[in-house]
Amino acid sequence: MSTIVFLEKEGSNIRKTSLEAISYACEISKIANTSVTGVAFGDLESSQLTKTGIYGCDKLIHVNEPSFNQAVINVYAHALNQIMIDEAADLFITAQSALADPIAAKIAILQKASIATNVSELPNIGSKFIVRRSIYSGKAFEDLVLTSPKKVISIKRNAVGLIENQKDVNIENSELKANPDMVDAVITGSDKSSGKVLLPEADIVVSAGRGLKGPENWEMIEKLANELGAAVGCSKPVSDVGWRPHHEHVGQTGIKVAPNLYIAIGISGAIQHIAGVSSSKVIVVINNDSEAPFFKNADYGIVGDAFEVVPKLIDVIRENK
Amino acid sequence: MDKISTCMKILVCITHVPDTTSKIAFIDNNTKFDSTNVQYIIGPYEDYAISKAVDMKSSNSAHVTVLNVGRSEADPSLRRALALGADEAVRIDADPDDTFYVASQIANHVKETPYDLILMGRESSDFNGGIVHSLVGGLLGIPAFSPVMQLNISDVKVEMTREIEGGKEYLEANLPLIAGCQEPIAEWKIPNMRGIMTARTKPFQVVEAYESESRSINKSFELPAEKEGIQLIDPNDVEKLHDLLRNEAKVI
Fold it and tell me: Min CA distance, B67 vs chain A (Å)?
């Protein structure tokens, strides 16, 4: 049996979260004695394809067919379902994303599979197949037994992280074409900030809130993020008043992140904000109000004026590079 | 469907969930949620879905049905949706334990009572699955999109804005379809006195659950490990923070 891993593209690269999904599948394959087959769509350089071997991909099916350009969820889902049938796969794994989760759901319907999203750890495989999911916006976990013979799993960032399992990946070019009957929508355009680190992909996230006083003060936040190779986030009030775009809003009703390091600057730490960041490994809070509730959820804190602390921090990082 | 009926039929599926500020705890050896002193609400994303549906009533001729898969404790949330402007409520009397089971209940209802547009929240705020809309779409063979930030209908064509990583995607599709809503699709509403009064006389049906399988079983719950406590650093010693992040936490 084999496991299919959906590999999502970002620009000309395979997303890091997708490589984490290969690591995740490879760890399962060690227990379940299965093979890991990645599936990637679109134009990708061969170095990107071979890279999947580092994380334990046995076989990579590359679907570089122009009919998949601008493909919609339903088209991808049916193509991946066909590949699952061809490969006699019983497990489908993907990294959580706006594209991957709905694909996963459609595959679960087509394969009559159990499905679990927001999965935060490796499964416990014995007489039962048990996954751990993050629930109540990171305030708890649930252990869920997946009872169908086939399973679909969407994993959170850092469920296992990137684990190297060097393999000689066998790259296969697929002739599979997009099925025009499955086109149920048209993508008429997109609006995406280019060249920036994506929030769900970032190892480090630097977020700022109303404590910054105005949108003009985000320059130092972006500078700090730049020095750290971090993505920039913000609190809900900041995106509500339009200082920053909605896709930077981190929190329960915005983007949920699980980076290695989350730095919150001038964010008091409303429960809804913390719900979106509580899966972060390390949290740093910089706030001039020592009573800010966020300090209770942080690993490191500085009670001080962001306009003094942040420029100093940028300098220290530069000096120590 | 080629043409929508003159009166558009909208279904809004809602969850009945603990208030987002609730303290989360479990009882019975971590197998059951502790609902003591917990205030329940309509899920925050479904509040957007209801608001959007009610807004559409004012610009189009529309009939809004609100649906919940759950037990009688969810009735106050359905009543609130009626007070906000929905025209009728349906509760499918079943325990909403398994995602696939809930999706099947909704899909079976829609097979019996077709709708032009089905609105849900992007995800339930308790179990955070975020796939019921896609599962229902898969079961019914109609398109589903989420998280939808904007939705405009002209005739049978629907224009949507969907949030993607790092930005937005613009889509067009035809009715019938399903949308998982999120801000800023509509402004949250507060029930007014007239809404609360008329809600009492609106149709409210409780129907039996449909025969369906579950594909998962909840085994237990667990709370995350508590943080070890914060290390405070002097604002004049930013070097120390850098040192701790690099050498102790090893994250930079």
Answer: 21
Compute CA B140 distance to the chain's CA centroid, rounded to the nearest angstrom: 19
Using the beta-carbon criterion (under 8 Å), do B130 and A185 form an inter-chain contact? no
Phi and psi at B114, nearest 5°, equal: -70, 150
Which residue of chain B is at minimal alpha-carbon distance from A118? B129
Task: Give, for A145, the enclosing helix (H) or strand (E).
Answer: strand A140-146
Report residue A47 as tokens: 């170095």
Rounded to whole angstroms, how far apart are CA atoms A38 and A170?
10
CB contact under 8 A, B171 and A185: yes
A284 close contact with B: CB closer than 8 A: yes
Do the Cβ atoms of B81 and B48 come closer than 8 Å?
no
For the structural domain made of A2-182, what CATH number should be given?
Answer: 3.40.50.620
pLDDT tens figures, B150-190: 999 988 899 999 999 989 999 999 999 999 999 899 999 99
CB A54 within 8 A of CB A192: no
pLDDT of residue B5: 54
With pLDDT > 70 as the criterion, what percentage of chain A qualifies?
100
Note whether A147 contacts B230, CB cutoff 8 Å: no
DSSP class of residue A245 equals: -
Q: Which two tokens stand for residue B47?
A: 């509040």
Nearest by CB: B172 against A137, A185, A285: A185
Q: What are the residues whose beta carbons fall under 8 Å from the beta carbon of B223, sequence distance 6 or more? A: A139, A140, A141, B24, B25, B26
Separation CA B71–CA B93 (nearest Å): 5
The domains of chain B are located at: 8-226
Q: Which top CATH class is A199-319?
A: alpha beta
| Residue B127, token pair as written in the block | 């179990």
Percent composition of chain A: helix, strand, coil (DSSP 3-state, to 5): 35, 30, 35
> What value does the mean pLDDT take over residues A98-108?
98
Of A97, A273, A279, nearest in space to A201 by CA: A97
Cβ under 8 Å to B: A residues 155-194: 184-193
CA–CA distance, A96 with A157 (Å, rounded to integer): 8
Residue A142 contacts B, CB cutoff 8 Å: yes
ipTM surpassing 0.90:
yes
Q: Report the CATH architecture of B8-226.
A: 3-Layer(aba) Sandwich (3.40)
Domain ranges of chain A: 2-182, 199-319
Average pLDDT over residues B46-62: 92
